[in-house]
C-alpha cells in the first residue's frame, strides 16, 4: 500500500505527547518503501538517502522548513531500546551529525554548527514507535543561553535552566562522536536515568568555546510530570529556522 508523505508528516513531526493515527508510519516508510526501493531500483525515494551498510535512512520531513529525520533500518521503539546501550551499538548520533548539511542545503545557505541541533524525544513526548533523530535548526536564543556553560568541565553533566525548566548539559570536545554515544552518556548521568531511559530526551548541538575550539553541547531533559515536562528537548529546535534569517 502506498503511504502518502503529506499526511504522514502531520503524524510524526509534533513534539507534544500524542497517539498517532498510525504509530508505525515511520517504520513503514523506512522498511517498506525506502529500503526496498534502494535495493530493487537504486532509488531511495521517498527518502533522501538509504545507508544500508550502516543501517539508517534519511527522510525529509514535510513539516518544517528544512527538517530531516534519521531512522534506523532495524526495529527500535525509541530512546528506551536497550540495544542502544550495547557496546557494539551503531552511533546514530554521529551518522545524523554527518547529515547536518542537508538542513542548510534546503534553506539555500550554510549554517554554523551552533545553529544546528539533533534531538530525540522521550517515550512520553513522541507519536511514533520507531526511533528517529530530528535534524534541524536550533531555536534562535538557545546558542547564547548555552554560552554560560562554555567553561564547564568536559564530559560532566551540569544543571541548566531555560524558562523555568530544568535540563542537564554536558560540554563535549570536537571529536566526541568518534568515541562517545549520547545515548550512553545519558545513561551514565545517574542510576535513575540508566533505568528510565524512556523518560529522557536528548539534544546535541555544535558549539565554539572561548579558546576558539569547536565542540558540542549535549542536553538532557528528563520527564517530570509534576512540572508538566514530558521530556521533549525538541522545544529547543525551531522548525521554521528563524536562526537562518
From TrEMBL:
It comes from the Bacteria. Residues 1-20 form the signal peptide. It is an enzyme of class 3 (hydrolase). Pathway: Lipid metabolism; Phospholipid metabolism; CDP-diacylglycerol degradation; phosphatidate from CDP-diacylglycerol: step 1/1. It is a single-pass membrane protein. It catalyses: a CDP-1,2-diacyl-sn-glycerol + H2O = a 1,2-diacyl-sn-glycero-3-phosphate + CMP + 2 H(+). InterPro entries: CDP-diacylglyc_Pase (IPR003763), HIT-like_sf (IPR036265). It is found in: Cell membrane. The keyword Transmembrane applies. Keywords: Cell membrane, Hydrolase, Lipid biosynthesis, Lipid metabolism, Membrane, Phospholipid biosynthesis, Phospholipid metabolism, Signal, Transmembrane, Transmembrane helix. Pfam families: CDH (PF02611). Its EC number is 3.6.1.26. Belongs to the Cdh family. This is CDP-diacylglycerol pyrophosphatase.
Amino acid at each position: 500500500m502506498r503511504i502518502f508523505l503529506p499526511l504522514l508528516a502531520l503524524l510524526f513531526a509534533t513534539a507534544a505527547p500524542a497517539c498517532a493515527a498510525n504509530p508505525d508510519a515511520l517504520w513503514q516508510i523506512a522498511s517498506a518503501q525506502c529500503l526496498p526501493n534502494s535495493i530493487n531500483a537504486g532509488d531511495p525515494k521517498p527518502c533522501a538517502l538509504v545507508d544500508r551498510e550502516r543501517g539508517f535512512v534519511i527522510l525529509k520531513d514535510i513539516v518544517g522548513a528544512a527538517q530531516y529525520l534519521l531512522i534506523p533500518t532495524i526495529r527500535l521503539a525509541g530512546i528506551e531500546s536497550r540495544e542502544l546501550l550495547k557496546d557494539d551499538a551503531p552511533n546514530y548520533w554521529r551518522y545524523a551529525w554527518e547529515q547536518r548539511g542537508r538542513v542548510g542545503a534546503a534553506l539555500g545557505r550554510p549554517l554554523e554548527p551552533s545553529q544546528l541541533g539533533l534531538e530525540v524525544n522521550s517515550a512520553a513526548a513522541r507519536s511514533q514507535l520507531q526511533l528517529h533523530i530530528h535534524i534541524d535548526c536550533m531555536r534562535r536564543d538557545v546558542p547564547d543561553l548555552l554560552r554560560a556553560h562554555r567553561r564547564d568541565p568536559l564530559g560532566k553533566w551540569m544543571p541548566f535552566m531555560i524558562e523555568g525548566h530544568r535540563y542537564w548539559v554536558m560540554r563535549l570536545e570536537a571529536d566526541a562522536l568518534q568515541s562517545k554515544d549520547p545515548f550512553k552518556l545519558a545513561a551514565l548521568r545517574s542510576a535513575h536515568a540508566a533505568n528510565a531511559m524512556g523518560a529522557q530526551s536528548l539534544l546535541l548541538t555544535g558549539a565554539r568555546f572561548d579558546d576558539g575550539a569547536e565542540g558540542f553541547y549535549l542536553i538532557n531533559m528528563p520527564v517530570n510530570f509534576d512540572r508538566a515536562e514530558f521530556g521533549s528537548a525538541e522545544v529547543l529546535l525551531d522548525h521554521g529556522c528563524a536562526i537562518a534569517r
